[in-house]
Design a protein that fits this description.
Radius of gyration: 22 Å
Low-confidence stretches: 2-26
Strand content: 15-25%
Strand order of the largest sheet: 4-3-2-5-1-6-7-8
CATH architecture of the largest domain: 3-Layer(aba) Sandwich
Shape: globular
Structural class: alpha/beta
Largest sheet: 8 strands, mixed
CATH topology of the largest domain: UDP-N-acetylmuramoyl-L-alanine:D-glutamate ligase
CATH class of the largest domain: Alpha Beta
Number of strands: 17
């Protein structure tokens, strides 16, 4: 990573916490609950504030040692590797859905999860079974002491990355689509040698770890480029694009830019079947995708869809069969939970894990383009290390009222009272504070009518809690008949 700190004689609080967790790892377990408890004892960098993260947490040597102990599963699978700041998950899901429709057994590794950690590791839409999760975690637990003695504590994400690669190897998938976690260069997924690398839109994010400028962040993301492996990106800020080109040359490959090196166009339209939606065209020497409907709402998804098509084109160049008719059918079947996902009616509840200012601006625009409503109540919570004022300004553009809350058991989460105070300096719109998502739904329910919209956003963790609560409510209704 770009940044580092020196702790001297004083131990970093994460190192202290990791040490305690590492000792707990010696306890053997049996069954899925035990495997889940074992995993949850590991340091989860996704939930820590950046200043609490030890730079030594990012070590590819440790990841390679783990995989070596598992007989190097990453060397036995073929994959696509996706990095970027915005749109990684959507692009991953579109690629995976298209490949599955083309007849391939497709592994999917993505993050974060919304409800169940097994969402992160799938073949097609089928999550890893509890028995396989437990079996592989038992194997990982047996090598923990040996690895950590030499390389330091194994993180939550490293465990899951190793599990995904071992599972995909064991299940003999034809191809895996692997989404980077944080950054790229030192991300634990960056041990694979992919068929294609792709970079989605790059934004300012995790600046304490990845760097304070777009150019620094771009260099970290481009760390996934490999010699001779096709690399593709969407149109970027010119300075970002320059960095990506430089990094591609340094890695020994060529970067292709959607719309420059591959003919690409998009248009917004509406019809009786799909309503408001975007269509894209992409043409290369090998492929001709014409007027395909983007399966996910929002103008910002057009480039993600184009990037997915570009990846499929490069796979075709490498011998994979990706017929246009199958790709079109696969796009139609794309599902992406937690991204403009609507539950219920009267009022409708929309869930979207937008967690950067740009993502929130795109969400507000997409809602305005795709959904009719009288007024919108936003339930909002985010991490305290985000660009909060910019995020709140984005929300102020579309929300008629905001209810601030926070996800449970997430140390990074901002205090809802602090969010409310910040928002009061930006907008005079009505706000309330809720102690949790259930309370937030109660407050929203008393403030909306049947034609209004409730939007939950700002954090994937908050969206996950909201989705879990809504599914539980549906189960209770179904039981009552």
């Amino acid at each position: 990573m770009t940044k580092s700190t020196t702790t001297g004689e004083r131990r970093n609080p994460v190192e202290v916490g990791v040490g305690m967790v590492a000792r707990q790892h010696r306890t053997r377990f049996s069954g899925y609950p035990g495997a889940l408890k074992y995993l949850n004892q590991c340091v989860n960098l996704e939930k820590l504030r950046p200043e609490a993260i030890d730079p030594d947490a990012f070590k590819l040597d440790r990841m390679r040692a783990i995989l070596s102990a598992l007989d190097n599963p990453h060397k036995a699978i073929r994959c696509v590797h996706i990095a970027g700041s915005k749109g990684k998950g959507s692009t991953t899901e579109m690629i995976a859905s298209c490949l599955a429709e083309c007849g391939y057994a497709v592994g999917v590794f993505t993050s974060p999860h919304l409800i169940d950690v097994r969402e992160r590791i799938r073949i097609g839409r089928q999550q890893i079974a509890q028995a396989d999760f437990t079996r592989i975690m038992l194997k990982l637990s047996s090598i923990t002491e040996q690895i950590e003695a030499q390389y330091g504590p194994i993180s939550y994400f490293e465990h899951l990355t190793a599990m995904a690669l071992a599972y995909f190897r064991d299940q003999a998938v034809d191809l895996a689509v692997i989404e980077c976690g944080l950054g790229g260069r030192l991300d634990s997924t960056n041990v694979v040698i992919p068929e294609v690398c792709a970079i989605t839109q790059i934004q300012l994010e995790h600046t304490e770890i990845l760097g304070e400028t777009l150019e620094e962040i771009a260099a970290e993301k481009a760390g996934i480029f490999k010699q001779g492996i096709p690399a593709i990106t969407v149109p970027q800020n010119q300075a970002v694009q320059d960095v990506l080109h430089e990094q591609a040359v340094e890695a020994g490959t060529r970067l292709l830019v959607l719309g420059e090196d591959m003919e690409f166009s998009k248009r917004f339209e509406a019809d009786k079947t799909l309503g408001p939606h975007t269509r894209v065209c992409m043409t290369t020497a090998l492929s001709e995708y014409e007027h395909l409907a983007v399966p996910l709402p929002g103008a910002h998804q057009a480039e993600n869809c184009g990037l997915a098509l570009a990846v499929l084109d490069r796979l075709r160049e490498r011998g994979y069969e990706t017929p246009e008719i199958k790709v079109a059918s696969g796009l139609e079947k794309t599902h992406c939970h937690g991204r403009m996902e609507i539950f219920g009616a009267k009022p409708r509840i929309l869930l979207d894990g937008a967690h950067t200012p740009d993502s929130l601006y795109a969400l507000v625009s997409a809602i305005g383009s795709h959904i009719r409503y009288d007024s919108m109540v936003v339930i909002f919570g985010c991490a305290g290390d985000k660009k909060i004022n910019d995020m709140l300004a984005a929300m102020a553009r579309g929300a008629d009222k905001i209810i601030f809350t926070r996800a449970k058991n997430t140390p990074r989460a901002a205090d809802p009272l602090d969010l409310q105070k910040c928002f009061s300096k930006i907008s005079p719109k009505m706000t309330q504070v809720a102690r949790d998502i259930v309370h937030a739904f109660e407050l929203a329910g008393s403030a909306v009518s049947r034609d209004d919209l409730v939007c939950v956003t700002g954090s994937f963790y908050l969206v996950g809690e909201a989705r879990s609560e809504l599914l539980e409510r549906k189960k209770r209704r179904d039981r009552r008949g």
